[in-house]
């Protein structure tokens, strides 16, 4: 199993770190790491499913931002924050539907469609905010709690993340509807010859990915109490990297949610370790890249040996 | 003095994980002979060829060429040693032209820095014409699967080799193309080239080959001169038992039941026109014709896999309005694709998931969740019935031999209890024993009231299995033959358009 | 009666050129640039690329140049890449003034900026004083962006020189990304439970950093440079300690003045060798536009949207 | 032909623009557009060939920067600029070779390998420069001329670009060696069966792509007289977009240099038009994305009709 290799690598890193820094193996640090990737983790879920169907979405960073910005602007315009958030998520889903349209009806590929969407949606963020961050300082505490509160010392953000991951991991393994995603990504033609409406499948997965990005945007808004028009730029590469490290193939047909989350965790552990070890900022990027490369290589090696 | 054989295999073994594909096999290919290699699906024939061609590496044992032990790490090494293989699965560069595919090896090894496309096209067209007049400037992706098979063969003919291995080259070819291939292969033999030939068609083996080697379960059984054995002997060695009746009994002439499938005036506006077809419960209808006649297109259009321009399709007297193939499946109309690798199976997915793909509803429990147990049960039952050789139902289809992949594709169609089943080259790559099983199964299905249509390029299959055969020529029904009229001559005449005068006129107009 | 000399010819146009043109730092600069232009009866335009890409910015600079404007107030994303374009502009008679970042080796007539070193130094003093000169601090960086690096370096240098008991315990790259800043501050707070302050040279990171500081119990003072509405709100709420904010308005207004003067050297009869040497007598090499310290007490005066509303202007869209 | 559709679209845009703005059809504007994409165009050439072989390179922006930074640092250390540049290009080729190693020997995919390389090489730029731009004011005029000089009023940069494009376009269409690139990208197995050493092919194409990025870096250095450690960040998406618009497939097997350059030109004309039309910056990104999407859709449509 692909995941086993990643778990081994992550554990090895954690153990090494616990010797190097006494602060590493504390609940505080663990919580900090989890917090730092749990919202992005929701986006990873959608991206993984999209990769399985053979697509890709470069627009997620922009969509996260747009959902944030739209909800924020609506809130400032007098909507209650829950309605505003629902509309924000709805608008994200619409963006997904638009991309799905271009992919399935017009016949463009996911890469170029979502690249254009990335630019367009980022532009819309600018249009809505006029370039200035919206300060949502007045968000009611009940809403802010989504991003900042916790339950028995476990932040809601982490709970939401775990629930979303658990649900989609389960569905992806067990639900009939999601099985079609694998068929379509594995061999689209064979899926069509099995009576599967592959275009529909691709369409809905595209919508799902954007919707989850929208959800993430709303949670970010609750956490930061702000909506910044530049938020999430460059996020897509990190997210795709996590999914690919976790075993998703860019050619479609394979990938797991759990693996992708482990990929995300690996990236997070590395980043956090470098900071804890007080590595010079000039060296951080380089070391991070090297560890990443080494981890992926080792994982690949473990994986290959098994199969 | 006896010359050393050009190719000799000694004590070769190969395992894929726990699966022993070959154990301690031997094989000997003499200069200038055509040597058949026989065995059931999964016996290890392709595995052996792949090792000789450098695609796979043996676990143990020796490969000797001209009496010299060699190790063949890569296809490039094999090429240098003068060994060439036509693979069982089509392996062409879809984005490149036919000509480039044919001469890919030559382009690779030549030193010329620049391409000479004029010469390439001219030379390639010459080679291609030996088999069929496919324009060589076309992209391979635009060819039908059987034409791709022809390109694959043409590719082998250009190789400058001492040993040519053909792995089921005729699996989807009709008589005409196969005959042309045989005369070319005989020509190669005259030039001293040695040929190893894998096929499940006994007639071919007996008309073409000099000797035959049989494998069973990954083991060597025997090698005999062809003159010294009968087809039954070979089958017995392959299967380990006697096969008494090759084809099941046909339907008594007056028995056909009610009309199940009725197609009228079907056209797609491009490849075929005015197709009428009636299928009655309990009968097996055959469809014959040359490659490119449009048989597959007709079948796919009936099932909603391609858009229709005009015409009607009615199932059980009710007119079907299909928005897509999914609707056809729901109505009970299923189609087995001739392109196994491209559209028949999901190579990377497990066998069980492949079989359940056609109707997931059957393995779905409450709440829309998959019922894994039901899926496994279904897979176990169908693979058992078809005798699929596999490590387990969780194994990826890509780990199966070609014939066993075909069985999985068939199992998928059978999983849904269809009303009408249209099978395009159903026994492509299937061994003799399994073929008998599948034929019996089809007959059983027909007997239980299912309408069965079999498209086949193998004339004996059409003749032996079907109650009635429709022949397609250039997109039109050239004629229909009842069981009593069936014969190779009759089918070929119709297929080539010789008999039907109206068609001939049309053909002239087109030209 | 002499006609008023401080007036533009018809069609005399002054252009401002920036990179990442959609972000609000530039807006007050352009606002005052425009106000000055209007007072002189000149046309003004705001140009630039929305991207963080020097190559694209130069393309927009070149395009602006192709329309032969009277002057360009440019924020060169990197200094040396602009030497050739700026010199080309000067040659064709377009005056060029750089602002907030310079291209010192070019022939630009003036450079106007706040003093990044002073900003960093001041920020360090403010933080250290609040901590009684004793404790641990960290910095978030955006390595590679010149003015940001200057602020950070000045901050650290000041601490070392003047506040020996202030200990630098961590540097992390946040690259203007709030999520990265958030993660970095959380990690830093884990490794250094006594962390008392964190400084970053721009506002984007601060949103994430402040949130992390808040979740860490509010012991960490967040200090930054630049402001936006969110930062101001947080300053007012006490979630951010303070900010040093360059006086963007002066940057724009004086930027215009410098351009206008450079374009009209004949207004004075120079009492030096300018005429002989061909030197522009109206060039002012360097102007410091100053900066403000934004704290709880004065934060209300820095809201851009309130300013726009009060003035009734359309900002960069006119 | 794919290219025809793009040419039509670009011409249509240009004609529309020439009515809308008197400045559009001037040599100055044309020169600005050509200048803005001609160096990037050299990178596009390498990327297109890499896409054809089925690879992708996210590290090009970092490599462009590293080549610049290494050459610059060497020049400051006393090397003559030509030698320094050659070393810079050589180092870029080495980076390509390292990526090629991970792809062909270790067996990682191009995406994740080049993503790691992007991070690592960017880190190396920071390490070499310590984060501050190198001022190369003292570069001799003969060297600066590469980037800033012109011949008969045609900048050398544009000449170099045209030569590189012409050479590789020709080679890709006609050279035997480059046909193997197509075969490998189209069906790696089939290519192997024909005796093509596909790993070698992939390796060398990876090296070529990085080398061309290195060449671009050196030219940028001559043009800007500086080496900035953040240069080229985000460049990769633009470059990949250009190649894909020009008909390169992300699945390998197809693409042309000429098409990719047209893709680049389209992007450039759109950007330039928006600026000349004095569109509000808030709307620029959005309109740009929409035009891009429309252009790709129209192109796709024209293309589909023909085939
Ligand atoms: N990649 C693989 N992984 C695991 N098992 C494999 C693999 N390839 C082949 N096998 C197994 O090796 C055995 C021999 O397969 P092979 O393809 O040689 O059969 P074959 O004689 O060519 O059959 P057919 O007539 O169906 O083509 C089969 O049991 C098959 O399942
Ligand atoms: N560089 C190339 N450009 C175009 N076609 C090629 C190239 N290399 C090989 N071919 C094609 O492959 C075919 C076989 O090549 P090979 O060199 O074996 O042929 P040949 O008949 O010996 O040709 P000749 O001796 O005239 O070169 C040729 O007919 C040619 O069309
Ligand atoms: Mg086989
Ligand atoms: Mg057919």
Automatic annotation (TrEMBL), chains A, D:
Residue intervals passing through the bilayer: 30-53, 60-79, 85-108, 115-134, 154-172, 203-224, 257-276
Subcellular location: Cell membrane
Topology term for the membrane: Multi-pass membrane protein
Listed Pfam families: BPD_transp_2
Primary subcellular site in the record, as a coarse category: membrane
Full protein name: ABC transporter permease
Alphabetical UniProt keywords: Cell membrane, Membrane, Transmembrane, Transmembrane helix
TrEMBL record, chain B:
Domain named ABC transporter: residues: 7-242, 246-499
Keywords for this protein: ATP-binding, Nucleotide-binding, Repeat, Sugar transport, Transport
Highest taxon above the source species: Bacteria
Keyword Nucleotide-binding: yes
Family annotation (Pfam families): ABC_tran (PF00005)
Keyword Protein biosynthesis on entry: no
Cited SUPFAM superfamilies: P-loop containing nucleoside triphosphate hydrolases (SSF52540)
PROSITE patterns (alphabetical): ABC_TRANSPORTER_1 (PS00211), ABC_TRANSPORTER_2 (PS50893)
GO molecular function, one term: ATP binding
Recorded family membership: Belongs to the ABC transporter superfamily.
Xref: PANTHER family: CARBOHYDRATE TRANSPORT ATP-BINDING PROTEIN MG119-RELATED, GALACTOFURANOSE TRANSPORTER ATP-BINDING PROTEIN YTFR
The name this protein goes by in its record: Sugar ABC transporter ATP-binding protein
């Amino acid at each position: 199993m692909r995941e086993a290799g990643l778990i081994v690598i992550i554990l090895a890193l954690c153990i090494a770190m616990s010797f190097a820094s006494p602060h590493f193996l504390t609940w505080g640090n663990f919580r900090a790491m989890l917090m730092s990737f749990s919202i992005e983790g929701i986006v990873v879920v959608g991206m993984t499913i999209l990769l399985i169907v053979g697509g890709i979405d470069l627009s997620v960073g922009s969509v996260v931002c747009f959902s944030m910005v739209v909800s924020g602007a609506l809130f400032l315009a007098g909507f209650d924050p829950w309605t505003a958030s629902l509309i924000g998520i709805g608008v994200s889903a619409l963006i997904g539907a638009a991309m799905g349209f271009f992919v399935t009806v017009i016949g463009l590929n996911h890469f170029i469609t979502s690249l254009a969407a990335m630019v367009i949606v980022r532009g819309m963020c600018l249009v809505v905010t006029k370039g200035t961050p919206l300060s949502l300082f007045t968000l009611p505490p009940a809403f802010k709690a989504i991003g900042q509160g916790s339950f028995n010392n476990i932040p809601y953000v982490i709970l939401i993340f775990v629930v979303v991951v658990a649900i989609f991991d389960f569905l992806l393994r067990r639900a009939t509807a999601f099985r079609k995603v694998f068929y379509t990504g594995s061999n689209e033609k064979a899926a069509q010859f099995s009576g599967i409406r592959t275009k529909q499948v691709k369409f809905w997965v595209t919508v799902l990915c954007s919707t989850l990005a929208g959800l993430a945007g709303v949670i970010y808004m609750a956490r930061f109490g702000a909506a910044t028009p530049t938020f999430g730029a460059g996020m897509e590469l990190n997210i795709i990297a996590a999914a690919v490290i976790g075993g998703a193939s860019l050619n479609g047909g394979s990938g797991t949610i759990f693996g992708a989350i482990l990929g995300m965790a690996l990236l997070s552990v590395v980043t956090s370790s470098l900071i804890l070890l007080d590595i010079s900022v000039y060296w951080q990027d380089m070391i991070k890249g090297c560890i990443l490369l080494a981890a992926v290589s080792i994982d690949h090696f473990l994986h290959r040996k098994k199969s | 003095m006896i010359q050393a054989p050009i190719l000799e295999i000694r004590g070769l073994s190969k395992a894929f994980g726990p699966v022993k594909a070959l154990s301690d096999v031997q094989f000997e290919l003499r200069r200038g002979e055509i040597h058949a290699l026989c065995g059931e699906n999964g016996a290890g024939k392709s595995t052996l060829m792949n090792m000789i061609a450098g695609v796979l590496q043996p676990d143990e044992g020796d490969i000797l060429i001209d009496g010299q032990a060699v190790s063949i790490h890569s296809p490039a090494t094999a090429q240098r040693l003068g060994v060439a293989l036509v693979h069982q699965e089509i392996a062409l560069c879809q984005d490149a032209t036919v000509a480039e595919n044919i001469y890919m090896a030559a382009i690779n090894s030549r030193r010329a820095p620049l391409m000479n496309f004029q010469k390439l096209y001219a030379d390639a067209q010459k080679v291609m014409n030996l088999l069929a007049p496919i324009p060589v400037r076309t992209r391979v992706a635009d060819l039908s699967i059987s034409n791709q098979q022809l390109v694959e063969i043409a590719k082998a003919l250009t190789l400058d080799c001492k040993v040519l291995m053909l792995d089921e080259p005729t699996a989807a070819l009709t008589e005409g193309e196969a005959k042309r291939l045989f005369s070319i292969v005989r020509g190669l033999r005259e030039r001293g080239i040695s040929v190893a030939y894998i096929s499940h068609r006994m007639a071919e083996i007996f008309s073409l080959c000099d000797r035959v080697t049989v494998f069973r379960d990954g083991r060597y059984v025997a090698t005999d001169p062809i003159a010294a054995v009968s087809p039954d002997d070979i089958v017995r060695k392959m299967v380990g038992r006697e096969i008494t009746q090759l084809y099941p009994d046909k339907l008594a002439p007056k028995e056909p039941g009610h009309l199940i499938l009725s197609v009228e005036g079907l056209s797609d506006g491009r490849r075929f026109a005015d197709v009428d077809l009636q299928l009655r419960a309990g009968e097996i209808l055959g469809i014959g014709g040359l490659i490119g006649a449009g048989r597959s297109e007709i079948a796919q259009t009936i099932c909603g896999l391609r858009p229709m321009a005009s015409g009607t399709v009615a199932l059980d007297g009710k007119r079907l309005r299909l928005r897509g193939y999914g609707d056809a499946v729901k109505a009970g109309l299923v189609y087995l694709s001739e392109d196994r690798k491209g559209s028949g199976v999901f190579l990377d997915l497990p066998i069980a998931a492949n079989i359940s793909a056609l109707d997931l509803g059957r393995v779905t429990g409450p709440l829309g969740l998959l019922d894994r147990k039901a899926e496994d049960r279904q897979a176990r039952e169908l693979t058992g019935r078809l005798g699929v050789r596999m490590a387990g139902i969780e194994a990826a289809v890509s780990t199966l031999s070609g014939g066993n992949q075909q069985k999985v594709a068939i199992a998928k169609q059978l999983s849904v209890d269809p009303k009408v089943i249209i099978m395009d080259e159903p026994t492509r790559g299937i061994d003799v024993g399994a073929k008998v099983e599948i034929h019996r199964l089809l007959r059983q299905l027909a007997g239980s009231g299912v309408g069965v249509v079999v498209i086949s390029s193998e004339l004996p299959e059409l003749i032996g299995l079907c109650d009635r055969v429709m022949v397609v020529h250039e997109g039109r029904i050239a004629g229909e033959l009842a069981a009593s009229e069936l014969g190779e001559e009759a089918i070929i005449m119709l297929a080539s358009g010789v008999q039907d005068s109206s068609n001939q006129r049309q053909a002239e107009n087109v030209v | 009666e002499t006609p008023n000399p401080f007036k533009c010819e018809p069609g005399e146009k002054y252009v401002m050129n920036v990179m990442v043109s959609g972000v609000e730092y530039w807006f007050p600069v352009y606002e005052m640039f425009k106000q000055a232009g209007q007072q002189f009866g000149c046309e003004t335009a705001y140009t630039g690329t929305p991207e963080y890409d020097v190559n694209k910015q130069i393309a927009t600079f070149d395009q602006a140049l192709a329309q032969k404007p009277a002057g360009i107030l440019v924020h060169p994303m990197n200094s040396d890449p602009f030497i050739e374009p700026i010199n080309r502009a000067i040659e064709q008679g377009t005056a060029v003034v750089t602002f907030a970042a310079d291209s010192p080796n070019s022939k630009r007539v003036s450079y106007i900026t706040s003093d990044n070193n002073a900003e960093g130094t001041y920020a360090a003093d403010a933080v250290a004083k609040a901590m009684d000169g004793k404790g641990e601090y960290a910095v978030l960086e955006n390595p590679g962006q010149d003015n940001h690096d200057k602020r950070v370096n000045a901050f650290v240098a000041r601490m070392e020189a003047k506040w020996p008991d202030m200990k630098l315990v961590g540097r992390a790259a946040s690259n203007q990304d709030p999520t990265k800043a958030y993660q970095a501050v959380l990690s830093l707070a884990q490794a250094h439970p006594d962390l008392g302050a964190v400084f970053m040279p721009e506002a984007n990171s601060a949103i994430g950093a402040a949130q992390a500081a808040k979740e860490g119990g509010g012991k960490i003072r967040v200090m930054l440079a630049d402001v936006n509405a969110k930062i101001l709100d947080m300053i007012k709420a006490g979630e951010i300690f303070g900010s040093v904010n360059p006086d963007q308005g002066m940057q724009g207004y004086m930027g215009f003045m410098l351009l206008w003067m450079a374009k009209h050297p004949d207004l004075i009869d120079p009492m030096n060798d300018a005429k002989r040497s061909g030197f522009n007598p109206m060039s002012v090499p360097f102007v410091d536009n100053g900066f403000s310290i934004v704290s709880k007490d004065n934060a209300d005066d820095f809201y851009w949207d309130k300013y726009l509303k009060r003035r009734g202007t359309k900002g960069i869209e006119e």
